[in-house]
Amino acid sequence: MAVDLKLYTPARVALGRRGTSLPTAELLQFDLDHARARDAVQAELDPSSLPFPHLLVASRAPDRRTFLLRPDLGRQLATPLPAYPCDAVIVLADGLSALAAHRHGPPLLALLEAALTGWRLGPTIVARQARVALGDPIGHQLGASLCLMLIGERPGLTSPDSLGAYLTWDPRPGRTDAERNCVSNIRPEGLPYEAAAALILALMRAARLRQLTGVTLKADADAPALPPSRSDS
């Protein structure tokens, strides 16, 4: 029995052909998805449109072009922050897809903040021209025990708006990616908000208990799921 693979994956499979080439519709769809991915990388974050109070910071990359050409500058904080000792600080950053930050950052942030009872949270930070490691100096200057960076991931041809979450215990400059935990592909078509929030919260609790993050830290497989949001009920 023939199986239509397109029913099970958004990947480019079973595209068909016209002679020795692809069907015109498939070529046009590829061009459209490629353009959407390029637009997502080039797009600027608009902090004024975010529906929550925040502190705005920036990396040492002065513009989008420099940010893309100089990843090292995207890891360096240009905006000094006052000390604000806290259990955790949450940073929403543009990364390589400001579209992801705009679409998925606010609903995910709302779920997390509602569930983080018993945690002393620092001010919510919004970061422009930011790489993942920008969370290290942010958390260090504030005096946060843990930094949670919500950041736009590198766009793919089927996912220009994928959001990632990176957790770093005892953030400070010089931390490596091996010392972080990542929850990837957060979006309704990938990892839904409620599932992502439950996994992030489980990792945060485990990180605080063991006082570490990274390759040796795993989330509790039996972590309870969050209740459905009102929009899903």
What's the structural blueprint in terms of helices and strands?
Elements: H1 24-42, E1 55-58, H2 64-69, E2 86-93, H3 98-115, E3 125-128, H4 135-142, E4 144-152, E5 163-169, E6 180-186, H5 193-210
Parallel strand pairs: 1-3, 2-3, 2-4
Antiparallel strand pairs: 4-5, 5-6
Helix pairs in contact: 3-5
* Shape estimate: globular
Order of helices and strands: HEHEHEHEEEH
Mean pLDDT: 91
How is the biggest beta sheet arranged?
6 strands, mixed
Rg over CA atoms, rounded to whole Å, is 19 Å
Q: Please write the CATH class name.
A: Alpha Beta
Give me the CATH architecture, please. Answer: 3-Layer(aba) Sandwich
Please work out how many helical segments DSSP would assign: 5
Number of beta strands: 6
Compact summary:
The protein contains 5 helices and 6 strands; from the N terminus they run αβαβαβαβββα.
Structure description:
The protein has 233 residues and is of the alpha/beta class. The protein has one domain (54-232): Ethanolamine ammonia-lyase light chain (EutC) (Rossmann fold), CATH 3.40.50. It is 30% helix and 17% strand. The protein has helices spanning 24-42, 64-69, 98-115, 135-142, 193-210; strands at 55-58, 86-93, 125-128, 144-152, 163-169, 180-186. Strands 1-3-2-4-5-6 form a 6-stranded mixed sheet, with helices on both faces. Strand 2 (86-93), helix 3 (98-115) and strand 3 (125-128) form a beta-alpha-beta unit.
